[in-house]
Please model this.
Amino acid sequence: MFSKRILTFCFAIKLLAINLAAQIFAPEASDSFAASYNPPGGTDEVFVFNKSSFGVAMTVSVVAVSVDRLSGWSFQWSVYDPVAEAYKSIPGASSGWFSAIDTITVSSGYRVIMTKGASSQVFRVWLLVNDLDVTITNKDEEDKLLFGYYNCSSIDLRADTTRKALFYFNPDTKARINVSVNYTIRWSTDNPEAVTPSSRLITRVNNPPSEDTWYILTLSDPFGLKRSDSVFYESIQSKAVLAVPEYVNLGDELEYPAKNYGSYYNDDIFSAPGKYRFDVSGSRNLSGYEIDFGDGELISFGADTLTIVHEFKKPGIYKVVLTTRSAMPYECLDSISAEVELVNSQFALPNVFTPNNDGNNDLISLENSNDVFRSEDISVLSIEIAIFDRAGIKVHAYEGNIRDWHGWDGRIRNSNRDAPEGVYFYVIKALHVFKEGTGSVTSKTYAGFFHLYRD
Model:
């Protein structure tokens, strides 16, 4: 136990830099404080040594240095025996200007008597080996949170600590002095979206995250000792994520195949009936879901369908609610909503018609040309239209969905004969979609005239 090894030059310099009034040092200690029984001016100290990890073997050292830092001193060490309540001498003595013991493995108290001629001084010190362990108790061998400690609404985290008490003795009264140690408890996660657990060993987390998350528990004591443990939560919580609904343009050939609607309609006007595309692919832990489109239709889907197109028949503002669920047996629910809008545009026909008879661009938008006589309106379910010349002869007729009406190209009864310039009359029976704020379909007849010019 006792060693006469020569300390290195650097170590000696470090000792010389310490307050010369103190004579026993533990340079490798993590912390120190004065013994509570110290009288004013007393020199007894308590040195704390933190283990690098729980349960590992540790050897610490203590050094006594003479007051004058000169050789010629004799050092006699003894160790405190709590059973005998007295110091027991350690065989052997050393001489010089310092002496060290570097084989200490357990908490204990030491006394050294320094003698030089008629001068004799006594110094005492307590060495405490500090160790701590923290363990999250409700996890398996793979560090996963055990089944039964989580559900759709909360997560329970449980931990416990292990440590030996720290104490020393008053050599005069023989009383044991316990060192009070208060821990600082901190939980953290690797998921910025997760709720941080409260600072307790046993705690509950509400609103579990929808992503797999590590929960890390860290304990620290006043002497700078830290211990950590962690547990992995495999999320069962669904997370409803709905991308911004996308209006489906009438020129979308996938949703309106072979219709050529884009030739007639302005995509800036979202008229009813109209389609919106909904993307739920950003949702997490998705086993299935349902969408309430806000128009009376509620449809359920499986996780293999992540993009849905829905047609709204009426104009208005619709609140669309997505509700997701995770896999069984939990089936945790989450929901999110979005709004879409369709307008009730006005039915309007031009009063001037100028087909160019060149055979080109026969079916292009009325907004850019007047080669085709038709309405841009799309808030109509169906129409019946008849166009007559001044003699009352029908030159054009159509019945059906207004979007499928290609308009009148200025030819008589779909032949190759061009209708002459002049005034023409039309009669249209239009069946409108539901108007906003009303509860019935409206039917109306339109009549009017227009001029056909050929430049």
User: Anything to note?
Assistant: The domain at 133-233 is CATH 2.60.40 (Immunoglobulin-like). The chain has four domains: 9-130, 133-233, 246-342, 352-452. Residues 1-22, 359-368 have pLDDT under 50 and may be disordered.
